[in-house]
Amino acid sequence: MEEHHTLITLFGATGDLAKRKLYPALFRLYKKGYLKDHFAVIGTARREWDDNFFRSVVLESVASLIDSPQDAEAFASHFYYLPHNVNDTQHYVYLKELSKSLDKEYSLDGNRIFYLAMAPDFFGTITQHLKDEELLTTNGYNRLIIEKPFGRDYQSASALNEQLRLSFDEDQIYRIDHYLGKEMIQNISAVRFANRVFEALWSKEYISNVQITLAEEVGVEERGGYYEKSGALRDMVQNHILQILALVAMEPPTSFADVRQKKIDVLKSLKQEGLEEISQTFIRGQYGPSEDGKEEGYRQDANVDDHSDMETFVAGRIEIANERWAGVPFYIRTGKSMGCKKTVIHVEFKPAESTLFSQVAKHDVSANRISIHITPKEGFCFIINSKAVGQSFELQSSHLEKIFDKNFALSSPEAYERLILDCMTGDMTNFTHWEEVAASWQYVDRIRQAWDAKPACEFPNYASGQMGPQASYDLLTSQGHTWI
Ligand code: BG6
Question: Which residues form the Glucose-6-phosphate dehydrogenase C-terminal domain (predicted)?
Fold first, then answer.
C-alpha cells in the first residue's frame, strides 16, 4: 500500500460536511495506511478555534471508528487550525507560512490538495488568493477539490469555472459528485462491460425503458434555506441523476481514462425538446403534511416561505438522441419525504416475442429486467422467465438476486474515502469534467425555463410519505409503462 505525502488545506473545516464525512474518510485512509507519517491537514474557517480544539472536534467526529486511542491521537496530531477570513490577503500569507513549515516537518514533497467545503460564493476569491499569494507549489502537485453545488444554472457555473481556471487547469480541478464514489454506482460499468450477455443487449433493439429512482425518506430537515434556492431539480437531477444516466447509457470506454469523455458524449446527446413538450414530460411536486398529520409539509419548515413554489420532487422522461438509444425512455424520479430511502436503477428489456408461449401461457411473457440496487440494499436482481411447476406450460418469473450482506458495506470504502484517495493518486475518473457539468446545466436549465413559463402546479401535490404526485404515475402510464 502506497503511503501518500500530502498537505490538505480544508476551507470550511468547522462545517457539517467536514465533521460528518471528511474527517472520518481521512481517518479510514489513515487506518488503512494510505496516510501515515507524511500528511498534514490545515483546517480553516471563520471561527476562532485553535489546534487543540480542532483536534478534539476531529477526534469526536471519528469516535465510532476508533480501535486504539493512541492511534487516534497520533492521527489527530497531524491537524492544524488557522482562523481565516477568505477576503483577507494577510491570512493567505499565514497559510503559506504554515504550509511551508508543515511541508518541512512532515516531508510533504510540495504536494497540495485544497479542499473547498463551503459556500461556492467564495470559491473564486479563494483560488485567486491561492495563486496570487503563491500558495501553489512548483515541486509537487496542486489539486483543487470542489463540493457541489457547482453554480445554479449554466451561466453561473460557467462564470465560476472561468474564475477557477484563472488559477487551476482543468486537470487540477476535482469536482465532487459523491454518487460517483459509491460502490454500486461504480459497479454499473462492471455489470455492463464485463458481461457479454448485457453489453450485447444494451440498446434500443432490446431495451424497452430505463428507470432511475433516487427516493429519500427525509424531508429538507434543516436545509430549507438552501433548498428554497435549489429545489430537487438542481439538488439531485443536474448532478447525481444525470451522472447515473450517463454511466448507464455511455458507449463502451476504451479505458478508465476515457469514461469521462464517453459520459460527456451522452450528456451532449440528451434530446432537447420544446418548452411545451418539456412541461408535459417533466413533473414537479412538493410534499404536504403526511396523511396522519405526524409529518410536516415542506411549507411548514421554519426556513421555507409559506407560499413556496419550490419543487421537492421531480419525475421526468429523458431521451437520448443517438444511434444506440433513440426512442428509449429513461424515466427518472427523485424527491424528499417519499416514505422510504431507495436508490435503484431498473433496466427493463423488451418482452420475448415467442409464438410458442403466447399459445400456452395464460399471461403475456413478462419482460426480463436487471436491477442495480444502490441504497439501502446493495446488489443486483435479474428477472427471467421459467416454466411453472406442473402439467401445464405456464410461465413464472424468477428473481436471480445477489444482495450483498452487511460485511460488504463495512468493507467497501465510503464514497468520500474513495474520492479523496483518488484525488491523492491523481485519478480523475470519478470526478466530473467541466463539459459534463456544462451539458447537464444546459439540459436542466431548459426544464426550469419550461416550468417558469407556466404558473406552478397546485402545491403541495403529494403527502409526505407518498412516492410523489399522481402526475408522475400518469407520465409512465401514458407510455404503456409503470414505475417498478
Ligand atoms: C446531496 C443532496 O447531494 O445528496 C441532498 O444535496 C441529498 O439533498 C443527498 O439528501 C443524498 O445523498 P445520499 O448519498 O444520502 O443518497
Answer: 190-483
Residue nearest to atom 14 of ligand 1 (CA): 179
- State the angle between helix axes of 154-165 and 123-132 in degrees (0 to 180), rounded to the nearest 10: 10
**Can you tell me which atom of ligand 1 is nearest the CA of 218?**
10
- Taking the centre of ligand 1 as the mean of its atom positions, its distance from the CA of residue 184, in whole angstroms, is 16
pLDDT for residue 455 is more than 80: no
Alpha-carbon span 41 to 9, nearest angstrom: 6
Please, where are the H alpha helices in 66-195? 69-76, 89-106, 123-132, 154-165, 183-193
- Pairing relationship of beta strands 142-146 and 112-116 according to DSSP bridges: parallel
The strands making up 142-146's β-sheet, listed across from edge to edge, are 79-83, 39-45, 6-11, 112-116, 142-146, 173-175
- pTM, 2 dp: 0.95
Averaged pLDDT for residues 332-353: 96
User: Residue 163: pLDDT above 80?
Assistant: yes
Over residues 271-296, the pLDDT tens digits come to: 999 999 999 999 999 999 999 999 99
What is the atom index within ligand 1 of the atom nearest the CA of 182?
Answer: 14
Cα–Cα distance measured from residue 30 to residue 404, given in angstroms and rounded to the nearest whole number? 26
**Ligand 1: does its nearest atom lie under 6 Å from the Cβ of 216?**
yes
CB 183 near ligand 1, within 6 Å: no
